[in-house]
Amino acid sequence: MDLPSSWVIEQKALTAMSFITFFLVILPLPGYIRVRNIGCSLYASWIAFLCFSSFINGILWRDHARNIAPIWCEIYIRLQWAGSMGILSAGLVIARRVSNIANSTFILHSDDQRRAMFTDLAIGLVPPISQLIEFWFVQGHRFDIFEGLGCFAIVPFSILSICLTWGWNLIIGILSATYCVRTIIALLRRHKDIKKVLTMTKMDLQLFHRLVAMAIVEMMGTVPLVTYVIVSAAPGYYPWNGFADLHLDFNRIDQFPYGLWSVIYKGYRPDTIVWFQIGCGLLFFGLLGLTRDACSRYKRMFGLSKLFTDSNEKSDGAPSSREPRSLVFWHPRSNPEESNATFATISSRWSLAEISSTKIKQQSQRHDEESVV
Length: 373
Fold this sequence. Notes:
This protein has helices at residues 5-26, 29-34, 38-60, 70-102, 110-138, 159-189, 191-200, 205-233, 243-246, 258-264, 270-288, 292-301, 305-316, 336-372, and strands at residues 143-146, 150-152, 253-256. The protein is mostly helical. It folds into 2 domains: 5-298, Rhodopsin 7-helix transmembrane proteins (Rhopdopsin 7-helix transmembrane proteins), CATH 1.20.1070.10; 335-373. It has a 3-stranded mixed β-sheet with strand order 2-1-3. A hairpin with a 3-residue loop joins strand 1 (143-146) and strand 2 (150-152). Helix 3 packs antiparallel against helix 4 (70-102), helix 4 (70-102) packs antiparallel against helix 5 (110-138) and helix 4 (70-102) crosses helix 8 (205-233). The protein is globular. The relative contact order is 0.13. The model is unreliable at 310-361 and 367-373 (pLDDT under 50).
């Protein structure tokens, strides 16, 4: 059966954009891991995995719906199911952290910082791990395969899935929205105090504003999207009659060619899930992957830092006296005096380097004059 040209183009675009988004998301990931930014690290990790998996699925099932990789599907559908919750949980971690900074409850002591880091890890990891554990209880049968998209988890919309999955998605979205509202109120009331807190925590003001924008976009999208999915699935509500009924013919694997699933799924189509993952990844890169610090890392990563440095020196005629600054989201040192001493040491070394270079230039000029004479 010949596929419509519109779907052929869309399928190729989905596959290509999945890989491009995966590449863009993993670029800033090492930097966020290095500075222990738990929320951004988890968010980027889940998006990177889901986009790369969609890229693999797009290649394997480009023009058919045969069961050619059952082991891959068994692994993928579970991580896919946990990943949807993982993205929401990571967004909650980001919203909570930004709210704490905006409301001046950010902690500076090392023990409290360690406790806050473990709290962020618990918020970001416990919900998706619980979805892995609970998946068998809500799973209808093994999985379905859609031509052009690959395998997907099949979970009937029942009272059990509402209590174990969809309800928690909505709760996490509401919590994220609550933290976002607190952040907006704090920004309107005490913007000057927030700048002082950012100075104490060595956090870039630009990065903070981008995190706030990320949290606000998530607030505007999470709750409406989860609500839309629940409302769309409500007509297909599956009455709960026990696990024997839910898992009847459990080993079944349904295979849907494009001509069939495009007719069956008119509202919330399977390809919408892939586009949503791509959108989340592009949003993350646009807001948190193009900061000054991230761009500096990209230059060093691709060997462009020396090129840009040489061009700046040629245009200015002198080395730049850029003040060193921290790139961390929250600083791990517990003693502010130690941080100030370290900053003074770095600055003094920077000044000594400039003085030494000036002396060398003066000596070379004198040598040239003497040689001319």
